[in-house]
Amino acid sequence: MTLAADALRTTTHPAAHALASEGLNTHAGALPARRPGPTNSEPKAVRIAIITVALLFLGLFIALPLISVFYEAFKRGWLAYVAALVEPDALAAIRLTLLVAGISVVANVTFGLVAAWAIAKFEFPGKSLLITLIDLPFSVSPVVAGLVYVLLFGSQGLFAAYLQAWDIKIIFALPGIVLATLFVTFPFVARELIPLMQEQGTAEEEAAASLGASGLSIFFRVTLPNVKWALLYGVLLCNARAMGEFGAVSVVSGHIRGLTNTMPLHIEILYNEYQFVASFAVASLLALLALVTLIAKTLLEARLVEDAQ
Amino acid sequence: MVTAAIPRPLRRPRSVIPGFGITLGLTLTWLSVIVLLPLSALFIKTSEITLERFIAIVTSTRTLHALQVSFGLSLAAACVNLVFGVIVVWALVRYDFPFRRVVDAIIDIPFALPTAVAGIALTSLYAENGWVGSLLAPLGIKVAFTELGILVALIFIGLPFVVRTVQPVLADLDAELEEASASLGASRGQTVWRVVLPSVIPALLTGFALAFARAVGEYGSVIFIAGNLPGQTEIAPLLIVIRLEEFRYADATAIATVMLLASFVLLLVINRLQRWSETRSART
Predict the structure, then answer these.
(1) Contact of A215 with A283, CB cutoff 8 Å
(2) For A44, left (φ over 0), alpha (ψ -120 to 50), or beta?
(3) pLDDT digit string (tens) for A90-105?
(4) Rounded to a whole number, what is the distance in Å from the CA of A70 to chain B's nearest CA?
(5) What CA–CA distance (Å, rounded) separates A282 from A192?
(6) How many CB atoms lie within 10 A of CB A87?
(7) Band of the pLDDT at B5, cuts 50, 70, 90?
(8) Closest in A37, A134, A139 to B31, CB measured
(9) Element (H or E) spanning A292, and its range?
(10) Do B27 and A111 touch (CB under 8 A)?
(11) Which residues of A touch B132 (CB under 8 A)?
């Protein structure tokens, strides 16, 4: 089932998907298990051994950390948990995180649709290079992503003189956090849309255009309905990354409590102050977000196949 | 600076669909503002450092050690993920067991869980009083705040790359090939080694390279569990942050340039591997 979407994604532009980084790619195994036939299966003992090793490894490295987040958060009971979340600095961090994620989702949806329109509906030289460049932020270390903005807008940055003259603050302020988040989430929506829209071709749009539809009406009435699930999928991944980004934001934020601390940065501060319950309480919200994202992603994958057909 | 990046449309495509100029223009502008201009700032700042200075920074003991920790442990973590990733994929694709769907879904948790959350969770698990750490302590094994801790974090974040790259290839593999091999008298071991393995090797290497590339740049999940002792458990991304906090911009910039170049090289390698993987699976 997922294979159709998958094959589609990989055949359209391999390079773009190479760096499937945060991709949460649709490689998920919604495939039915192949019932091992008599000639091509391992002895029962080997099978049990392989399954046991796999489950132990996943349990130790993946399930246990996730469970421990909630365990540590509720260690001192509900009251301590809630107290950690309604504390003013925590609320400020939650508000800031929601604001930054909201901005980056809106920006990336706009960019993703515009870029996918140009790339999927037209032929032009340098297209595959452009796709590679859009995917580039996936391969850059988050710390480097934050650093480049400090080099541009920091006190010794390339634009420092202008920013000082106009009294504009970017680094250690909201704009810097937004920019760093935009950088790391840059490919998320675009790379969900581009392969799908390439696969869908231009026939429907051409038909609409020849019937006299305007560009915007083609977009809203033909193209957008065709890619809605992929768009939603991209939004989901973009939002999860934007809310959880740590490295890039940490470099540009300045860690000012109540002002420039996002949720991940607030978690770090609390943890370093040995306020473990509070730290894990805030972390549990992000872990919950991750779980919701995964569940929604699983549900969406079936829809994505519909889009592709 | 920004507008310079908008090229004139090279050839007006003969298309009835409108909007080529404006969408391509906006795409290139936005790409330049958010990605290309900032990345070029790194190279501009690096070019302001003299070559001797650059070499001195990059080859200083502390920097070299941080790079060694980042690259060495990323390689080790990718190797661990390669081995266990294959076992996990094999179990998921070939066998049926209770809660297989759920197990399959949780593979993506390292993708979805914010790195800072993973970092504190792993640290509390592997600290000496943690669930896992307290079991290992009597054996004299310390994980948190040692190289081993960094390895654990890098294994965590890298695993899905191997699994999700190999899984579709193994699932797609034609069962008839294995049946043919068996009917020609090959043992099960021979079939797996000589028929199955060669078909999944490109995907394995791609997954390995993706896991490695991700681990090299990783910051959030590592810094909590690492201990961060200079010359021992200090990773390169952390050293960049430290230099930045000390206002030693040249140092931060030089190390970042090395990291960025390394990720460009890895990107190229991964693209090559991916293409190889596709031609291979197209043939079978």
Answers:
(1) no
(2) alpha
(3) 999 999 999 999 999 9
(4) 9
(5) 30
(6) 17
(7) low
(8) A134
(9) helix A276-308
(10) yes
(11) 60, 64
**Nearest of A114, A105, A112, A111 to residue A219 by alpha carbon:** A114
| Tokens describing residue B216 | 């090299």
* Per-residue pLDDT at B148 exceeds 60: yes
Chain B residues with beta carbon closer than 8 angstroms to that of A111: 26-27, 30
What is the maximum alpha-carbon separation in chain A?
78
Q: In this structure, is residue B8 part of a structural domain?
A: no
List, for residues B49-71, the tens digit of each pLDDT value.
999 999 999 999 999 999 999 99
Closest residue on chain A to B247 (Cα): A156
In a domain, B19, yes or no: no
ipTM of predicted assembly, 2 dp: 0.87
Question: Searching chain A, which residue's CA lies closest to the CA of residue B217?
Answer: A141
Range of the domain at B266: 39-283
Is the residue at B18 inside a domain? Answer: no
Calculate what percentage of chain B has a pLDDT beyond 90: 73
- CATH code for position B255: 1.10.3720.10
Nearest CA of chain B to the CA of A194: how many Å? 13
B109 touches A: beta carbon within 8 Å: yes
> What domain count does chain B have?
1
Give me the numbers of helices (H) and strands (E) for chain A, helices first please.
17, 0
Residue B31 is assigned to a structural domain of this protein: no
